[in-house]
Structures are given as C-alpha cells and as structure tokens.
C-alpha cells in the first residue's frame, strides 16, 4: 500500500509540475523577404518587402524596417521614409498568408558607380515570433556605367 501511494504521489507531482511535453507551439512565425527590381537607366530601385506568416497563430501586426543606403533621397508610399530607413506595417495576416509592400526608392548617385545595399528586418510583431532566424533579408544593387561608344557612357542599375 505504501509503495502504491508513493508511485501515485510521484506521478501526480510530475504531471502537475508545469513541464508539458505536448505543449502546442505559440506565436506567429514570420519570415521576411526583400526583393529589388530596377528601373534600369535611372538610379531607382523598387523594393518589395514581403512578410509570410508560418503560424501557428494569426498575426495581428508586425513592423519591418528596411535600412537603405544613405544616398537614398525619396520614396513612394506605402512605407514611411525617414533617415534612409523605410518603416513598413503589416497585419492582420492568417497562417500561410503573405503580404507585400512595394516602395520606389530614388538614389543620389547620378554619374557615379555605387553599390547600394538594403536590409529588411522584423523589429516587432504581435503575437511574438518564435523563430528569429528568418526575420531578415538583404538585397544588393549596383549603379554602373557601360563603356560603349563615345562618352558620356550610360549608367544603369543592376540588382
């Protein structure tokens, strides 16, 4: 009788200790994707910021910032532009769904060769993101000249 009571007490203590092997994952695992598309002959890049909710919960809201090259001068909506940074808001978003925001960015690099890097990073989301490993992405573009024919040689963007 004593042995049975001890086994029952130890088993009950283990089951109610708060450690659960079958706890369901929580949060909304977001992945961030940054794609750059050029306007070719102008120092302009269209940045597409995409957020995908891998679940398991629906996303209420998320904020992604895109750190641009300091020579960025102006952008088009929908993200907010200040100090060479785009701030983009997303949500709500169901598990499995993707939302995308496209912003045209102009650069002050006329008649110069330049490498233009941009990095998108999720900085906040509700509910929390359980996997920070897929919360950032980088895109690189080059403003280059093509030395063909007579000067002035044309400059173009390549991403």
Automatic annotation (TrEMBL):
Q: What InterPro entries does this protein map onto?
A: OmcB-like_DUF11
Q: Name one Pfam family in it.
A: DUF11
Q: Any signal peptide, and if so, which residues?
A: 1-21
Q: Which UniProt keywords apply?
A: Signal
What is the superkingdom listed in this entry's lineage? Bacteria
Question: Can you give the residue ranges of the DUF11 domain?
Answer: 41-139
* UniProt-recorded name of the protein: DUF11 domain-containing protein
Question: Can you name the source organism?
Answer: Saccharothrix carnea
């Amino acid at each position: 009788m004593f042995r049975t009571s001890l086994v029952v007490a130890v088993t009950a203590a283990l089951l109610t200790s708060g450690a659960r092997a079958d706890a369901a994952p929580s949060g909304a695992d977001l992945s961030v994707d940054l794609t750059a598309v050029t306007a070719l002959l102008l120092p302009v890049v269209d940045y597409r910021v995409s957020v995908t909710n891998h679940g398991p919960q629906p996303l209420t809201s998320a904020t992604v910032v895109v750190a641009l090259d300091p020579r960025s001068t102006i952008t088009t909506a929908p993200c907010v532009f200040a100090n060479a940074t785009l701030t983009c808001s997303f949500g709500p978003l169901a598990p499995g769904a993707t939302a995308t925001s496209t912003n045209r960015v102009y650069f002050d690099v006329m008649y110069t060769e330049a490498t233009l890097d941009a990095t998108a990073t999720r900085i906040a989301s509700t509910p929390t993101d359980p996997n920070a490993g897929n919360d950032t992405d980088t895109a690189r573009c080059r403003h280059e000249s093509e030395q063909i024919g007579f000067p002035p040689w044309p400059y173009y963007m390549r991403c």
